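Researcher: I'd like a candidate sequence for this fold, 117 residues long. If you have to choose between options at a position, lean toward the conservative one.
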């Protein structure tokens, strides 16, 4: 569950800020713990806790809201193709995809949580 939670934070940050070449406002080690293709079994070091990730997500929401105002039609300097083969050309396209991506991982978290009850 922790990986999915952290992955949401990392990918959201990358899709909104990283693809525009802006500084990402999350700890640098989030990529090694939660980037695409990472696995908890391969973690080196101690990952952030649920509480720490929750704080990141809460703060991230405000930063994204402020940053994206009036920028949804802004073109990415280089189109981005995700692992699923979908190519994005604008900030709005990446942001819209982030909702779908988040929903997938929230559903996985819910299923894992139910399986441990």
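Model: Candidate sequence:
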């Amino acid at each position: 569950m922790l990986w999915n939670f952290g992955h949401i934070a990392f990918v959201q940050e990358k899709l909104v800020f990283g693809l525009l070449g802006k500084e990402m406002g999350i700890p640098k080690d989030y990529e090694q713990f939660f980037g695409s293709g990472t696995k908890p079994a391969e973690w080196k070091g101690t990952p952030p806790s649920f509480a720490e990730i929750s704080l990141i997500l809460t703060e991230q929401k405000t930063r994204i809201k402020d940053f994206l105002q009036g920028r949804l039609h802004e073109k990415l300097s280089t189109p981005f193709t995700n692992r699923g083969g979908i190519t994005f050309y604008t900030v709005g396209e990446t942001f819209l995809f982030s909702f779908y991506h988040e929903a997938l991982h929230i559903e996985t978290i819910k299923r894992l949580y139910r399986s441990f009850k």
